[in-house]
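Milestone 3.1: sequence recovery, worked example.
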C-alpha cells in the first residue's frame, strides 16, 4: 500500500489524524520498534552482558543473579534507545517516501512539508514523554536495585556509602551592629572516616551559643536514632569564652550531644547519579550544599539539568531526521538511513559529552551545559526543515 493509493485528491483535509497521518504513523512504528530492540540489545551487550559474563566466570556470580541484574539494568538501555530509535524511524520512513516519489505526490496535492512532518513531530513528543517517565519512575529504582543485588551476591561487606573526610559546615544569619545581616559559620563538623555505622576522628567547632564556644574532639561517634542525637565516645570538650579566654576542659568516655543529623545524611546517601530521580537528586543537592564541596555541587547541578534535558533529544532527533528524510533523493535504503543515524547520534553525544564536561568544570552554567546540545539540534533541525520546504 502506498500513499498514492489513498486517493490524494481527498487529502487536502488538513485536520489532525487524517488518512495521511495514520498512514505515516503506521510506517513509523515498525522501524521505531526495530530500533528500540536493536539499540537496546547492542547497548546492554556492551554495557552489561560482557561484564556479567566475566563476573560469572571469574567471581563465581550465580547465573540466576546475573540474569536478575541483567533484567534490572535493561531499562536504562531502553531509555537510551528511545531517541536513537526515533531518529532511525523518521529517517527510514521519510527517506523511503522521498525515494519512492510519494513526497512529490503529497506536495503535488498541495500539502506542505511542515504538515507532512507533523506525524513525526507528534511521535517525537510522545516518545519524549515516555522517556521522561522511564527516566524518573523506572530506571533509577531498577539501577539501584541492580547495584544492591550485585553487591549482596558478591558479598561485598564494605558499604557503598563509606566516605572519608566528611565536612559539614552550618551557617546562621546574624544581625550586625549597623543592622546589616551577615551569614557566619556557627558550627563545623569534621570526621576522618565513616564506615556505615561509626564515624572516627571527629572534631566539632561549635559557635552556636552566645558567649561560649566549644571544641569537641572524640575518637568515634554514632547517630542515636531513638533519641535523635549523637553519642560521642572517648573525647574531650574544650570550653572557650567569646573573648577567647579559657573556661574549662571536660574529658569523657561517653557524651551525648544535640547536633544535626546532616553529617550522617551526607555520608550515607551514596547513590550514583543514575540511581536517583530528579526529586532525589535535588534532595541530595540540598544536603551536599552544606559540605561546601563546590565540585560535587556543580556536578550534581549539571546532572539534574541533564535529567530534565535528555528526553527532549527525541524531539531534536525527530526534527533533524524529518528534515533530512524529506530532502529529494533518488535512493535511500535502510543501510543508508542506519549509517546516517549513527553519524548524527555520534556527533550529538560527542557534543553533549563536551558540553557536560565544560559544565562540570564551571566554564558553562549547569543549565547551559545541559541544554546547549538541544538548542543546537533544534536550530539545525529547524533550518534544515525550512530549507527542505522551499
Amino acid at each position: 500500500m502506498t500513499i498514492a493509493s489513498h486517493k490524494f485528491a481527498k487529502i487536502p483535509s488538513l485536520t489532525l489524524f487524517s488518512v495521511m497521518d495514520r498512514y505515516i504513523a503506521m510506517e513509523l512504528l515498525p522501524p521505531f520498534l526495530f530500533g528500540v530492540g536493536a539499540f537496546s540489545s547492542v547497548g546492554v551487550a556492551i554495557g552489561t552482558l560482557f561484564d556479567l559474563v566475566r563476573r560469572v566466570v571469574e567471581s563465581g556470580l550465580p547465573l540466576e543473579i546475573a540474569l536478575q541484574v541483567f533484567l534490572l539494568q535493561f531499562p536504562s538501555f531502553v531509555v537510551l534507545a528511545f531517541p536513537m530509535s526515533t531518529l532511525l524511524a523518521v529517517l527510514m520512513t521519510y527517506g523511503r517516501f522521498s525515494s519512492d516519489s510519494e513526497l512529490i505526490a503529497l506536495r503535488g496535492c498541495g500539502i506542505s512539508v511542515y504538515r507532512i512532518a507533523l506525524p513525526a513531530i507528534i511521535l517525537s513528543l510522545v516518545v519524549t514523554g515516555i522517556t521522561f517517565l522511564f527516566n524518573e519512575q523506572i530506571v533509577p529504582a531498577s539501577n539501584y536495585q541492580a547495584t544492591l543485588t550485585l553487591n549482596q551476591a558478591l558479598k561485598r561487606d564494605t558499604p557503598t556509602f563509606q566516605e572519608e573526610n566528611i565536612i559539614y559546615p552550618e551557617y546562621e544569619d546574624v544581625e550586625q551592629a549597623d543592622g546589616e545581616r551577615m551569614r557566619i559559620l556557627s558550627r563545623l563538623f569534621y570526621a576522618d572516616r565513616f564506615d556505615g555505622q561509626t564515624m572516627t576522628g571527629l572534631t566539632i567547632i561549635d559557635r552556636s551559643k552566645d558567649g561560649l564556644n566549644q571544641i569537641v574532639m572524640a575518637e568515634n561517634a554514632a547517630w542515636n536514632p531513638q533519641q535523635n542525637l549523637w553519642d560521642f565516645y572517648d573525647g574531650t570538650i574544650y570550653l572557650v569564652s567569646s573573648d577567647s579566654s579559657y573556661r574549662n576542659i571536660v574529658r569523657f568516655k561517653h557524651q551525648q550531644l544535640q547536633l544535626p543529623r546532616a553529617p550522617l545524611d551526607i555520608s550515607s546517601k551514596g547513590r550514583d547519579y543514575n540511581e536517583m530521580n530528579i526529586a532525589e537528586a535535588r534532595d541530595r543537592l540540598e544536603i551536599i550544599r552544606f559540605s561546601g564541596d563546590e565540585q560535587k555541587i556543580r556536578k550534581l547541578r549539571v546532572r539534574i539539568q541533564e535529567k530534565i534535558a535528555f528526553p527532549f533529544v527525541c524531539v531534536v532527533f525527530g526534527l533533524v531526521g524529518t528534515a533530512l528524510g524529506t530532502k529529494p533523493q533518488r535512493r535511500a535504503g535502510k543501510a543508508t538511513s542506519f549509517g546516517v543515524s549513527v553519524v548524527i547520534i555520534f556527533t550529538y553525544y560527542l557534543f553533549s559529552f563536551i558540553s557536560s564536561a565544560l559544565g562540570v568544570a564551571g566554564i558553562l552554567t549547569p543549565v547551559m551545559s545541559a541544554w546547549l546540545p538541544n538548542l543546537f539540534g533544534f536550530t539545525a533541525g529547524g533550518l534544515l526543515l525550512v530549507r527542505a520546504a522551499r
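The radius of gyration is 29 Å. The CA atoms of residues 35 and 85 lie 4 Å apart.
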